[in-house]
Amino acid sequence: AKRKSILDLNKKYLACEPLSMCTAYDYITASWAQKSNCDMILIGDSLAMTSLGYKSTTDLPFDEFKYHVKSVCRAEGSSLVVADMPFGSYETSHEVAISNALQLLKLDSNVASLKIEVGMHTKDKYTINLVKEMCSRGIPIMGHIGLTPQRSHSLGGFRVQGNKSYKEIKELLETALVLQDAGCWALVLECIPQKVAGYITSKLNIPTIGIGAGTQTSGQVLVMSDMLGMLPGGVPKFVKQYSSIHRVASDSISKYIDEVESGKFPSNDTHTFKIKNEIWEEFI
Ligand code: KIV
């Protein structure tokens, strides 16, 4: 299938058709998303926790992330692939950040865009100017505002953003507008009250992709391990679980172990290779 381009997705946005995005972490999960014809696959740094068992996205080494980017890109299909800029890959200087961005884009020509978490424009001039620099060099950037997990310590934890005061809502809206001006082609809005996310969306002319941001954004993104129940334990309030892969998988493996122990697997008839009697008898 022909890969969707940023232009294709923009046409869909202009036609007011909702955009779909989900995360993927490796060849298998990317193949599922590609088979389902998701508009966009995000190689999110959430893979640090969902795939690699780190405690935080900030623990993710850049080299390990690159390995996952290559793996996701090997899955064939039409989804546009977006890769995160992980924590530590862009904060040192614009020069280092641009060099790391180019490394990600050069891993595979299927990486169509990068995504960067950005703080409020009043406090995070550095990242906003970086986005501007990158976009002016032709690097497609999806901004990410609201709850930005890489900054969870500064934000006081994993909490809804843009719900405390008039000033906070205004800052969030201004940040979205500044990022649009900086050249972002889309914005992720994470954990923002529905009304605020809807208002921001209505003031932009680029698509917004919401996660925990209600029904009024131009599209939705979910973390695959949350939506498919790939890990034990709870998921955030805004997640809808469409499956419980962790339970299905561990129940299936337990059944396999029982059958190995009881001698039910492998079955003599279906899972074994036979040899012609005359050859066997010649040997024996
Ligand atoms: O890393 C990630 O999975 C993300 C999504 C939550 C948008 O940034």
From TrEMBL:
<dbReference type="InterPro" id="IPR015813">
    <property type="entry name" value="Pyrv/PenolPyrv_kinase-like_dom"/>
</dbReference>
<comment type="function">
    <text>Catalyzes the reversible reaction in which hydroxymethyl group from 5,10-methylenetetrahydrofolate is transferred onto alpha-ketoisovalerate to form ketopantoate.</text>
</comment>
<comment type="similarity">
    <text>Belongs to the PanB family.</text>
</comment>
<dbReference type="InterPro" id="IPR003700">
    <property type="entry name" value="Pantoate_hydroxy_MeTrfase"/>
</dbReference>
<comment type="pathway">
    <text>Cofactor biosynthesis; (R)-pantothenate biosynthesis; (R)-pantoate from 3-methyl-2-oxobutanoate: step 1/2.</text>
</comment>
<dbReference type="InterPro" id="IPR040442">
    <property type="entry name" value="Pyrv_kinase-like_dom_sf"/>
</dbReference>
<dbReference type="Pfam" id="PF02548">
    <property type="entry name" value="Pantoate_transf"/>
</dbReference>
<dbReference type="GO" id="GO:0003864">
    <property type="term" value="F:3-methyl-2-oxobutanoate hydroxymethyltransferase activity"/>
</dbReference>
<dbReference type="GO" id="GO:0015940">
    <property type="term" value="P:pantothenate biosynthetic process"/>
</dbReference>
<dbReference type="GO" id="GO:0000287">
    <property type="term" value="F:magnesium ion binding"/>
</dbReference>
<keyword id="KW-0566">Pantothenate biosynthesis</keyword>
<keyword id="KW-0808">Transferase</keyword>
<protein>
    <recommendedName>
        <fullName>3-methyl-2-oxobutanoate hydroxymethyltransferase</fullName>
        <ecNumber>2.1.2.11</ecNumber>
    </recommendedName>
</protein>
<dbReference type="GO" id="GO:0005739">
    <property type="term" value="C:mitochondrion"/>
</dbReference>
